[in-house]
Specification:
Elements (H helix, E strand, L loop, with lengths): L11 H9 L3 H8 L3 H10 L2 E3 L6 H10 L5 E3 L8 H8 L7 E3 L3 E3 L2 H10 L5 E3 L3 E3 L2 H10 L5 E3 L13 H10 L5 E3 L8 H10 L5 E5 L6 H10 L5 E5 L3 H4 L2 H6 L8 E3 L7 H9 L6 E3 L8 H10 L5 E3 L8 H10 L5 E3 L8 H10 L5 E3 L23 E3 L8 H10 L5 E3 L8 H10 L5 E3 L20 E3 L7 H8 L7 E3 L8 H10 L5 E3 L10 H10 L5 E3 L7 H9 L5
Helix pairs in contact: 1-3, 2-3, 5-6, 6-7, 7-8, 8-9, 9-10, 13-14, 14-15, 15-16, 17-18, 19-20, 21-22
Length: 566
Amino acid sequence: MPEQPPWEELPDQCWDEVFRRLVSADVESVSSVCKEFLRISNTVRTSLSITNGLTPLRLGSLLQRFTFLKSIDLSSFHGDPSSVLRQIAKCSLPLERLDLSNRESLRFGGLREMGSKFGALRVLVLSNIRLLEDPDLVTIAECFPKLEELDISYPGQSDLDRVTDDGISALSLRLQRLSRINLSGNPSVSDQSLVVLSVNCRSLKEIKLGESNSITGKGIASLIENRPHLVRLALNYMREEAIFCPKLVDSFGHAKGFVSLDFAGSFIWDRLLISVAEANIPLKRLILSCALGFSFDGIQMIMLHRQDIKVLDLEAVLFLTDHDMSVICKQLRSLTHINISQCWKLTMTTLFSLMTQCPFLKAIKMGKTNLSEDDANETDIVLNSQVRHLCIPYNGKLTDECLKKIGRMCPNLQYLDVSDCLKITGDGISGVLESCPEICYLKISGLKNIRNICIDFELPQLEVLQAEGLKLNDEQLVAFISRCCHLKNLNLKDCVHLSNEGVKEVVKNCNTLREINLWNCNNVGDDFPFLNWMVCTRPSLRRIVPPCGLVPPEIQDFFLQHGLAC
């Protein structure tokens, strides 16, 4: 009798911990090793996204297999969800989150059955429901009385069917546990709703408001004063006449708990920022992207008083200069994430300041800035081993030498986006890949000057390659892909120089390939024999976008039978 492998003696709890540290694709691969691994891996899957192509039979088998689902997403399912919800209601799942966004209206037959079975649902997302009105909110509260998070943002604009203060008032009386709510894009919701929420929902910690013309600074001030321990507040794209008032400025003196403030797209002013700076709050995240009405003086006051900020978003704050950024870098040494995209005055000097002054920085976004070749010497390069994410697309002056220098500064990069940096060639890409062997996501779409990418080293970490519109031919693509032994997602949209032969070699050589996009690759076939060959040759594939962009109806059933999304 053969000796039992030692790993079979490990208890399920050990394997459960191992599987939870794998990404979904790796879990699927491991689950095919043996029945025991399949059984354990089924318990690790906690979320499921349901699309139009999922048949009732297939859904039933998935619900029977994954019995520990906590989140179900129907936002991409455009049919009547009632039958799907009834099918879910028949299962014994520890369901906590349900997303029903992007549909014409709510149909409560299936929802009521869900409520009777999953009355303890914590999170409900109902964004972009075209016909959403007050009675719907009452029914939602009756079905799911233990909701903690609710998103009813951006319903359809109708004079008759809309959410009003009456609906929010009724909702607030029934949802005693509500801690987060998104009211953005509801034109008939006014200050009155903020008052009743702040009074009735004692657990309220986060509220998002955006493009809400009936809400004013006075209402927001009342909210802050009544709920001083709010943790997150988002005021997005609020007009000057809506929120400009002294009472809002004064209200931050009552605040105690704000960790995150989001003023994206809104009109704010220096006195408001100074009030935030002087408030006794543990601010860690500040979003000012596309905001108007303030100056660097307001930002500087924030920096002086709130030096523990970790996430800072200043996208499209057009007055920012390299000197301004050097001041920010010196003050905010705890920064981990920064977005200064579309700040067209910023150059490599700012990038150097970030690298040298912010030792904990992990992610930098500098798209559409003024990165270009500079006169810095090699001795001026300072390594920052913490930076993992660099997003610098649409920098038209960025050269190969400049990109190589950036790569030497950030040797531990895992995510790199240099799409539409038109001066970059294959030499610059190969240079940065040599300096940054840990890259797992590479976006080089729109680089018209890339004729080839010649490398003589392996890229074992690269999993996602976004290469839209490159002029590589079959031979050049195959040579590069042969170095990427763990590639999972390949986007070749608009790569018009490729043919069936090149795609075949890629599919044969990429053992882990899960998604491939061939949209508008006009020399690649999209007939059944070729797509059938791809599916049968590479069983790991879960999504194929054919050259025509759509999966022909006669092939959809074949795709679904093999587990591919349509």
